[in-house]
Write a structure and sequence with these properties.
Elements lengths: L1 E5 L5 H12 L4 E6 L9 E2 L2 E2 L7 H4 L4 E5 L5 H13 L7 E2 L9 E2 L4 E2 L4 E2 L4 E2 L4 E2 L4 E2 L4 E2 L4 E2 L4 E2 L4 E2 L4 E2 L4 E2 L4 E2 L4 E2 L4 E2 L7 E4 L4 E5 L7
Parallel strand pairs: 1-2, 1-5, 6-8, 7-10, 8-11, 9-12, 10-13, 11-14, 12-15, 13-16, 14-17, 15-18, 16-19, 17-20, 18-21, 20-22
Antiparallel strand pairs: 3-4, 22-23
Length: about 220
């Protein structure tokens, strides 16, 4: 299988590629894509950036997969992934080989970095990214187009809605439900359910404002 990765910005991508290749000889990394035209044709740690999503109709194929690495906001992540699909691209996963996926249900278009722990009966939706050292407790359900930053702790039996953004070192207590397109600030401790679109900060977490729905922001 041949893979193209969208988002030439983080050198950790290169280590991820090397880790996957070390255990999967069928992983063929074919190139980087980026929607920043200034990066087109540039060198990214020895790799050429071939272009942006406009290249997808020319690169797609039965044995080709695309992975979106962009995590700046979940709305941008969803929009850029939609661009991949509109171009006829098929989503694949870039998952660090050290992650134990036994008794875990995952979607497509995932980017899961090193040292992520997914406990038994966790479900992870399509187009979601979880960064290094995050812990997702047993039976937690994570929706699509979610971003979980590094060192986040999500306790067991939680529900994380579509498009949620969880900042670095945030903690979600057991059985908490976080509504769609909510934002959890870095270091927040979430002790109770969070409404759709809410922005939560502090310890204990409190709602300080509400996001606009995607497309309205």
């Amino acid at each position: 299988m041949k893979y193209y990765l969208l988002g030439a910005s983080n050198p950790e991508t290169i280590r991820m590629i090397r880790a996957v290749r070390s255990v999967d000889e069928g992983f063929e990394f074919a190139g980087m894509l980026d929607n920043d035209v200034k990066k087109h044709g540039a060198d990214f740690y020895g790799l050429a950036v071939l272009g942006g999503i406009e290249k997808i109709p020319f690169l797609k194929g039965d044995q080709v997969r695309f992975v979106n690495l962009i995590t700046r906001t979940t709305e941008i992540r969803k929009t850029t992934t939609s661009g991949i699909l509109k171009g006829g691209g098929v989503l694949g996963n870039l998952i660090h080989p050290g992650i134990n996926l036994d008794m875990v249900k995952i979607g497509v278009g995932l980017y899961l970095q090193e040292a992520v722990i997914l406990q038994a009966e966790v479900e992870v939706g399509d187009n979601t990214s979880i960064h290094m050292g995050s812990l997702i407790g047993h039976e937690t359900k994570i929706g699509s187009s979610v971003f979980i930053a590094h060192a986040v702790s999500v306790s067991g039996c939680c529900e994380i809605g579509e498009g949620v953004f969880i900042g670095t070192n945030a903690s979600i207590l057991p059985r908490v439900k976080i509504g769609q397109w909510a934002t959890i600030g870095s270091g927040a401790v979430v002790t109770k359910n969070v409404p759709d679109y809410a922005v939560v900060v502090g310890n204990p977490g409190r709602v300080i404002k509400y996001n606009q729905p995607p497309g309205v922001r």
